[in-house]
Amino acid sequence: MNDRRVVVTGLGVVAPNGHGLAAFSQALRSGVSGIRKIDKLAELNFRCQVGGVPQQISEKAKNYLSEEDLFAMNEAMTFGAIAAMDAWRDAGLEIPARESEQVHWGSGCVLGSGLSGMDTIGEKLVPNVNAGKVRRLGSSMVEQTMSSSISAKLSGLLALGNQVTSNSSACNTGTEAIHDAYLRIKIGLAERMLAGGSESSSQYIWAGFDAMRVLSSEFNEEPHRASRPMSASAGGFVPGSGCGVLVLESLEAAKARGARIYAEILGAAVNCGGHRMGGSMTAPNNVAVQRCIRQAVEAAGISPCKIDTINGHLTATMGDVLEVNNWATALECAPKDLPLINSTKSMIGHCLGAAGSIEAVAAVLQLHEGFVHGSINCEDLHPELAAFEGSIARTTIEKPIEILAKSSFGFGDVNGCLILKKWRN
Amino acid sequence: MQDQVYEKLLEIVKPFAKNKEAFEKATESSSFLDDLEVSSSRLVDIVLDIEEAFEIEVADTEADKIDTLGSAVALIKAKTAGR
After folding, report:
1. For labelling, which of A16, A66, A80, A306 has a CA lying 20 to 30 Å from the CA of B12?
2. How far apart are the CA of B73 and the nearest CA of chain A, in angstroms?
3. Residue (of A117, A53, A62, A64) closest to A88 by Cα position
4. Hey, are the CB atoms on B45 and A66 less than 8 Å from each other?
């Protein structure tokens, strides 16, 4: 079995606080929140009435996709297509002409979501079926609601001929996609993979979380302050949406075509706590979290002390304190020695199945450009994190970083961790 | 009447025609699938739009026989005759 090096050569992002790398990077550096008041949520009596929604995407979509494409694309598919096409171009690759018969046999994608096609299901499928109007649904329901809708559409837009699939592991989806795509290249089954997650802004996705009382509800009139990871006043996460995509390539393939390389994936791991030892459908088994982080570090072949910064899962729930402590335990460091840690969710909310991949784009940008973005809204640090205060990046720090650890955790007691290293020629 | 029907039909078909060049040069003999490169699955959506635009009902067996723009026009004309 091959054991090849895998690098990141392209990035694309459709985030609540910026579309495109320049806008997103600037927003991260400047602490720009993409959380806004969502009137629809107020009308529908949600406790949480704020959310993270990428702006003006339906207008921009016309520059990427034909009318024929858009006819059968819901929001998550559109976010996914835009982010993936941006990433593809960013990697220096051309979007193939529709007429071209050339298939990229070495290129595939793993692009998943947490809850696929819920806008289509809620707004079209269910109302028409219940009204006895099945015939009026037209031809596009299946392709918009099948779990693989996003990756399936992308394969046609980019003529992908390798594995094309959509994974799903709740809030770990985006990170797991990168893990899976990385492994496929590493063992020699693909040369190039697009990897990420996409999630729509549907109220039908967010309602279940609102009913669980895990969403923020105390800052509805101050949206920019609503997402508060690691703060004493964190009262739940803010739902977000969007898509992040990484183009991963074997080092040989990237070098052969003279591609610009952002970073190398040194190691990655995913696991599950088995709903034991305190773990459940909705709570983490801390031993599993620590094992996952350790496994990723071991796979990377580095000493934990080489990690310069951590981009955490950190959603603004009770889990934040557990997570930070888990990092310290897994990396075997005293609180004061924990690497700098931040939460991209403080600015974009929790983009669920897209979270890991949008945050991975943020991670690679931080490595490439040399900064650790500030985690906003934790000026009132959670008292149980006081010992970690010096390690929590509350404002942006401009400095070169070499190695970054990125984690995601999800319902189902699943975990994911990536170890990324800045590429130096 | 035929010109109006044809023009209205072209509006319906336009977003589904993947061959834009062929669409610009379309005639009544243009076929949906081969010339205009409409995806076969989207014929269902075109028929739904036709039903709505012309306030008619098209049976599945009738829909199956639509292959060119002209055949669609003929069907619409037959269904709307006498209105």
Report:
1. A80
2. 21
3. A64
4. no
